[in-house]
Amino acid sequence: MSFSSQSFSPEIVRALTECGYEKLTPIQQQAIPHARRGQDILANAQTGTGKTAAFSLPIIQQICDNPKQRNRFNVRALILAPTRELAAQIAKNIEDYTKYVSLNVAAIYGGTKMSSQEKKLEQGLDILVATPGRLLEHMELNNVSLANLEFLVFDEADRMLDMGFISDIRMIMSDIRTQPQTMLFSATFSSQMNKLSNELLRKPKRISVSPENATAETVAHVVYPVDEDRKRELLSELIGKKNWKQVLVFVNYKETANELVKELKLDGIKAVLCHGDKAQSARRRALDEFKEGKARVMVATEVAARGLDIQGLPHVVNYDMPFLAEDYVHRIGRTGRAGQEGHAVSFVSREEELTLLQVEKLIKQRIRRIQLAGYEPANRDALLQKMHTKSAFKDRSGRTNNPTDQSDAERRARLRRAVLNKSKITKLKK
Ligand code: AMP
């Protein structure tokens, strides 16, 4: 199905052709016709499926079809995203799609000056992409008005909930007096998400492009069982031996990220850092270097790297397994995008075997183990045998992420669960 068959204007089709878009992706095929008719949308779509165009193109076309004079501080369409990087990326995509039409878009997020954002808001915007926290700050200063809002999008809504943005979202919603067309995109669904979507959406068209909690079919998953203290060596060895050119490495803690980048550099591997403690400009620079191939490795924490679109990224490494299985799906969503091949490599220490089981259950796939000579973990078999006999572990749940990228409440809950899990594992080892 081509974009011109969706009656997008020739200027938009031309811009899309320049982006290399010829045919609609499945999520676009499902969402665009309904969104063009003004329906609310509830979409289960993982990253890399083309969801940004799925929600933004119908908005762009509707704004072009119905141009209005821009009023100071006024916004016609609001797109909420959980992270700075994702917000910047969505705005960049929209700029690309609107190259040949007269429409303005801006992204506002924390970590950059309020004053420069205020200037953008003052002129009035057709489309505003924002993280909830920074948007609220501007709303409190009357720098932005949602009084005439026509379109509202929640992108990666599950992550916004995970990051504790629920009260910010409710505060933003309380300022919206119109009934905007609303679209909610999420990679995973929970009871809290269902509750939120019931509150936000009116008779939404439900769409789903892949089974819940699935990873892209073009991704090959492998696991390297390895002791924690050998992971660093294993990473350098794999990068060197297999000649990996572009690797996104996920770790759970910013300290691990700092340490790992130093060590990789000592091994002569150019690596950059992306975590929540880094200034926005430094994160942007790191991402650019990584995208341009100036750095071979980017070491990132979960939240910082959320939603990043790196064209044709071939390798994602879970240096640490995520604490929650669902996050595996999010991380791996960085590779195998738009039908390209991807490799998801996980380093699994004894303590992480339980998470691995959960991941396999979630993605309904057994992941191939590769035992690399010289890196065999000590006593793994004994642990595995015990683990499979302990039913208590099979339904282990909990959510933990990089503590520095999370709210205090989330961090406390994470630590509580980590302590609990640790004591379970310690018991298991006895
Ligand atoms: P997204 O899920 O929106 O982050 O998109 C993932 C990647 O697919 C991005 O690099 C998009 O530019 C690309 N993409 C989106 N729609 C299409 C399309 N119809 N044809 C080709 N590439 C696309």
TrEMBL record:
The molecular function GO annotations come to: ATP binding; hydrolase activity; nucleic acid binding; RNA helicase activity
Residue ranges constituting the Helicase ATP-binding domain according to the UniProt record: 32-207
List keywords of the entry alphabetically: ATP-binding, Helicase, Hydrolase, Nucleotide-binding
Q: Which InterPro entries match?
A: DEAD/DEAH_box_helicase_dom, DEAD/DEAH_RhlB, DEAD_box_RNA_helicase, Helicase_ATP-bd, Helicase_C-like, P-loop_NTPase, RNA-helicase_DEAD-box_CS, RNA_helicase_DEAD_Q_motif
Residues annotated as domain DEAD-box RNA helicase Q: 1-29
Stored PANTHER family: ATP-DEPENDENT RNA HELICASE RHLE, ATP-DEPENDENT RNA HELICASE RHLE-RELATED
- Native species: Photobacterium chitinilyticum
Q: Which residue intervals make up region (Disordered)?
A: 390-410
The residues the entry assigns to the signal sequence are: none
Residues spanned by motif Q motif: 1-29
- Report the Pfam families cross-referenced here: DEAD (PF00270), Helicase_C (PF00271)
Q: List the protein's name.
A: DEAD/DEAH box helicase
Q: Which Gene3D superfamilies match?
A: P-loop containing nucleotide triphosphate hydrolases
Q: Does the keyword Hydrolase apply?
A: yes
